[in-house]
Structure of Cysteine--tRNA ligase, cytoplasmic:
Amino acid sequence: MSVVFCVAAKGKRVQPPWSPPDGTEIPKLKLYNSLTRTKELFVPQRGNRVLWYCCGPTVYDASHMGHARSYISFDILRRILMNYFKYDVFYCMNITDIDDKIIKRARQNHLLVQYRAKKPSASQILQDVLTAKQPFQVKLAETTDPDKKQMLERLDTAVTTALTPLQGAIQSKLNLCSRVYTVLLEEAKDLLSDWLDSQFGSQVTENSIFSLLPKYWEGEYHKDMDALNVLPADVLTRVSEYVPEIVEFVKKILDNGYGYESNGSVYFDTAKFDASSGHSYAKLVPEAVGDQKALQEGEGDLSISADRLSEKHSQNDFALWKASKPGEPSWESPWGKGRPGWHIECSAMAGSILGESMDIHGGGFDLRFPHHDNELAQSEAYFENNHWVRYFLHTGHLTIAGCKMSKSLKNFITIKDALAKHTARQLRLAFLMHSWKDTLDYSNNTMESAIQYEKFMSEFFLNVKDILRTPTDITGQFEKWEAEEIELNKSFYEKKEAVHEALCDNIDTRSALEEMRALVSQSNAYVAARKSAKLLPNRMLLQSIAHYLTDMFKTFGAIEGTEPIGFPVGNNGQSADLESTVMPYLNVLSDFREGVRKIAREQKVTEVLQLCDVVRDDILPELGVRLEDHEEGKEISKGQTKKLRKLYEAQEKLYNEYLQTNQNGS
């Protein structure tokens, strides 16, 4: 009051009081944390930096769509955290190249190659397959899992079918076609491999045999990830390169009192860890403790023999270090020659790179127990903390047309097979249209939905680019906004807010894509209304919407390249700027066709008009080009052009037919 009086006394006006607006609460990112089984506010430990470890593949066979489920999903999450939320993400992933599955597969492949190299006689092959069938039949009879039993029964039927011609030929002393036993060898390779391994596996001692297989499949894995547009990890760790670190990791766990040595192997004492203050075993799936089937799968096929199981203080304990048996690779250690346990690999490698605590650990849903629970226990035993991982993210299962997918059940689709049917963008869109943490069904319906979504968005981008090609001067691009533009712009901002809310809600890309679809539908309605009124749509507004949508697809990893609007044109290896290169030729063709149509209408040559329609309706769409006729002229929108040569051929064909028609008419 005194200030106002003082100023007023001097005869000067003053600014009125100012107060900031109330504002609105901005949504914050929440992630579904498997450690709490709920959505938690995401708070990195060190400012904007995010330390992230992801369990990588065990490389003993071709990568399949189950792998794609995890790695595409995590690639989407990673890109969104980096490019949308602007976190500084440091991403570490491992390659498991020492594992029971790898050892067994490498031995079997080696022994089967040796067997074939010996060129056994038909009678010898028959005898060996029949011998190999005996333990297989026992295994089939003892199998209770319905899916696995069905797989084994299919294998048994295939082998029996392949045996019949060979048995008949030998009994009848007929000349044998080499194809007969070649087919049998192919159908029975799994049986023979198992039998050969049981007989001679212990004699395989050359370590290089166990490294060639994972090296090859790791290379194939990286090719698949590149084809899927999955970003490479910032750091890639291989188990074979970290054996010394793993040995030191195990030693410290022993020193801290959470492990014990037994017959050259080292085991983690789950009971002692669980009883220790500040520690808890099986944080992720406590109800699974004691599940012997899951525990034995975690230990590996080569590590669940009766003598191995008897070495443990408790059946819940798990191997940190395994004493190598004959036929297994080995490394020196304080406990004798051996190899790492499965779970310890991730702990030692992640600990070496990321330290005592990370922000995010990712992996497939089926890894929660025992793998990730054992990782947590041994890592927290090593670091003597209770927060080795702050947020545990698990991607959902992938089914194939509603059926369980499993490599061990031979019910899987390789990534290469999937890419032969659909593009990487279509696969990614299918994943984006589903929650990353829920089961995704890879089926014709799923892929058709993704394809239709892609077409819907592509059509919008093409229409916007066609509108932007309308000639105008530099000032003409800034048009007056009427009520329709104001309404569309209001909707644009509402949809951007809705997309942001969806991404903050556990990175809900499914809802985000639906909001983007709704924005396009509203934009299409606006364009249609303007054209119906014979008015041009507002270029700048549509350009802003198209830029936003394009940027979002780039954020999701569904668009590569630098094109400002829409999906890149052209196949892999072609220039991303193919559209701008081809457009002048399309314009020439369009102008030529329009001239021909004009003459044909004037001279009433219906045959030529029909040929023009064929070019528009049949020839150009096959090349990925849409040509629209309008009363006031023409409009060209272009999708994926295959070869410029075909455009020239189409133009030449039209011109020749026009000349021929005129000649016939004269």
